[in-house]
From TrEMBL:
Name of the protein this chain belongs to: Lipoprotein signal peptidase
Record-level Gene Ontology MF annotations: aspartic-type endopeptidase activity
Transmembrane regions: 123-147
GO cellular component annotations of the record: plasma membrane
Species assigned in the record: Candidatus Lambdaproteobacteria bacterium RIFOXYD2_FULL_56_26
InterPro entries given in the database record: Peptidase_A8 (IPR001872)
Family: Belongs to the peptidase A8 family.
EC class: hydrolase
Catalyzed reaction equations: Release of signal peptides from bacterial membrane prolipoproteins. Hydrolyzes -Xaa-Yaa-Zaa-|-(S,diacylglyceryl)Cys-, in which Xaa is hydrophobic (preferably Leu), and Yaa (Ala or Ser) and Zaa (Gly or Ala) have small, neutral side chains
Amino acid sequence: MGYLLMTFALVGLDQLLKVWVRASLTANDLVEVIPNLIHLTYQENRGISFSLLSQMPESLRQPSLAGISALVIMGLSGYLAKQWSQLDPWEKLGYHLILAGALGNLIDRTFRGSVTDYMYFHFYQTSFFVNNLADDLISIGFVVVLLHSFRQRHGR
């Protein structure tokens, strides 16, 4: 129950941050958070990570991306329900972080037609990417599951 509560709390936080960004920033805004590393900005990403597939026709892109996201969420939820008793706390944490991120971005994609991105990562003049909390939750969850799997296989 605690993991599920955490998941919904993170989805709620993700959505609140996106609402705040849409209400407070414009596409040209850059608000410094950490000098020469992180700024806040506002972008609508119609594709997936790094704006991949954003040029795909709208009539194909939206149903495809929302459908794939929904299938991943259902598959992961089914896996968690079936395997719950065999998973250790680190696996549960990692998978629930992934689930929270996927749900956060699916909500955007379903109700807005795009995902709101706002964290601009760069190092001085070298730009890396713009993403959101949901993207970070997916990435962190994946790393947690991967590191746990590595530790289990190598007995550490």
